[in-house]
Amino acid sequence: MKTIKYSQIALLAATSFALPAMAVTSEQSAFFDNLAAHCGKAFEGTVTAGNSADSAFSGKKLIMHVRECSDTVLKVPFHVGDDHSRTWVITKTQYGLHLAHDHRHKDGCEDKVTMYGGMTADMGSATEQSFPVDAYSINNFRENGLDVSVTNVWHMYVKPQEFTYRLTRENRDFRVDFDLTKPVDLPPVPWGHK
């Protein structure tokens, strides 16, 4: 009977519980890199599609700031006038790219409706990715009376001269386009971040 050494058991245990490798496609990686290329810069945007549900954005200065960048996570605060509550979090995962909306209050604590979003459902392209709503978000929306949001799909487009954030669902198409050719002054630190 073959004797198994302790070091072999430790090695087997370590490999059994190793985290899976990242499994983003080359298109998703290129998209991630295209957005990361703007790290440290902020850009002003304009609402180019929307309806009465989007009135909170009317007449406000809209700034996106590619603020925190690592090999696997991008944090992009979206400032709406003096409201610094929103940060988009794009993460490379074993299943593709994930988009989360980190919503905070002025004191830094999390909103009841936060970290909602979704995972890419297909490879997308180097310039376009879509994020259909995930189960966590559907539950969060329902718990907070936002049933209208359970079919949300978020889209992001990174082109040489423009970044677009878009939300679509039945009877709603909200879109903000940001001019990447004209960096602007950096906005304040988003609420709840250092």
UniProtKB/TrEMBL annotation:
What superkingdom heads the lineage? Bacteria
Sorted keywords for this record are: Signal
Q: Which residues form the signal peptide?
A: 1-23
Spell out the protein name for this chain: Secreted protein
Organism field: Shewanella pealeana (strain ATCC 700345 / ANG-SQ1)
